[in-house]
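**Fold in tokens:**
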Amino acid sequence: MSAIPVESLLTLPTELLYLILDQLDTNDILFSFRNVCTQFRAITDSYNRYKINLNDAVPKTIIRRIRRSIRLENIASLNFSSSHSMSNKIKLFFSRVGTDQLLCLRSLKVCGLIERDLNVIMHHITTISTLASLSLAENYRKPMSADTIAALSSVIALQGLHNLVLHVDISTMNAIVWPDQCTIRQLIMRVCNHNQLHRILRHSPNLQTIVLNNCNMTEISEVAFSNPYIELNSLTLDSNGMSIDQIESLLSLLPSLLYLKLTSYNVSVNYLRRFSQWEQFIRHKLPLLKEFKFYIHNDKCCHNIIENIESFIDAFRTPFWLENKRWFVTLRCIYDGLRSNIILYSSQDSCTNLSDHSCLNTISYVISTTIDHNAAQTNTLWSARLNLTKMMNAVPFNEAKRLIYHNLYKITQLVLDITDKWPLGSLELLLTLINLSQLTEIHLFISETHVLWTKPIHMLLEQAFNVHTFGISYADDLTPSIMDISSMVSRRVDHLIVQTKNIDCISAVLDCFDHLSSVTFVNLQNYPRTWAKIIEQVNKQGNKYSLIHDDKFLQVLFDKDLSELSKIEQSHKRIKSSHYQQNP
């Protein structure tokens, strides 16, 4: 009988061992893997994808060992980061180094180095033809010298450089000499003005992607941007201070965009109105656009806008947005007791998310465009999140506050933050503001660790008799109250959501609520082990079930087989679980 061959790392092809080394830290390779045997030592000698990270924490002894153990032509990536002087370490690393020895260097990242150290590094790489990626974050305490900028300009002119990240100030950007035929394909900049952008686009025929983190185009020149740039297909624009006219002027010259991400803060109401009419602008100026993400914030919302807030989202309910492009839009109105903010942003899908620390506010609305897959029409979902204590403190309502609460009668999803004992008279006030009979979802976030007040919850659910989804998050352990909650949840409720980390609570819920269509557990602790216990619990009960989960939640679907899972709307699941993601 022939012996069964024993598999080991020693039998693997060198190419596979290289892939393993790609996942290891350089210190692990040099000081552990390399010392196992002579074969591994030979492999580390020929391995040419080393990633070297040098910072304040790396002692000179380690740098000396790296220099002794690694041939410079085997280094693929260098990363220098420090806010203090690294002159001695840099001098030690580059001692007796000729640029012709860094034959495989493809990536260089320099972050926060003082000007003197940056100058040394720039001059060492000005002729390295293999360099494909450069990331530079300037130390802003001292301006970059003319000599360093000249060296940086030489690096940018390297024919093999494809990816460039420049986190430098505006004066440095102005001083950089951009080469005539730049090979950059992807460019990320911290600051940029219209003259610099024009110069870059004019000299970069291969440029496909630009990320502008702080774009100042307030003096955009129509003459400078007279010709379209058809090569660029991806733009991320933080349009700080730009008007909607300036943004449209810039985008009109980029007709080949496939991807656009736009961020604008403190915009005017006119900006919002113009933006809501962008269907025609995109059709004519950006006909190839496939993916569009945006986040637009207005912090000076007047009362008449609040009263007619839905008009802002009407323009996004057309077939162009929902069917042709499948770009969903969410509008959030937040009132913090002093002023109102409107945030208009793109949604990945037809989901509503109320979780962004809304409990700090008196009230927030969320309106999202969706598609009703059961009918040839579009819907608007109205959700609201209320802090009961702050709402009671706002009584009596003046005209401004009346307008803030005006839209509550439209909502179908209600989230209540209870940060103190259930306020007396709050249920009666809710009945005057909200048509509870049209609610389909109620979620409660109870933050104080006092005795759970079941009576007002029971009265609320009695009035909201069409609720089919009920969720609860309680700062204390819910386990002793599960029977009370079970008695409150009517047979009309199909879906229960519980935020808990307690396995005993999970077991109690599964015992009491197996008649529901689904139970969702959010914010699970040590979730793989918790999943196993949940599965064991359900198996004991003998129920037919299936599971949907990720690392944030687990949903148990009772009495459903796998063939039926496709009928369950994923967006509905996300609507419910998203409330809890920012609530520990």
Remarks:
- The two ends are 61 Å apart (CA to CA).
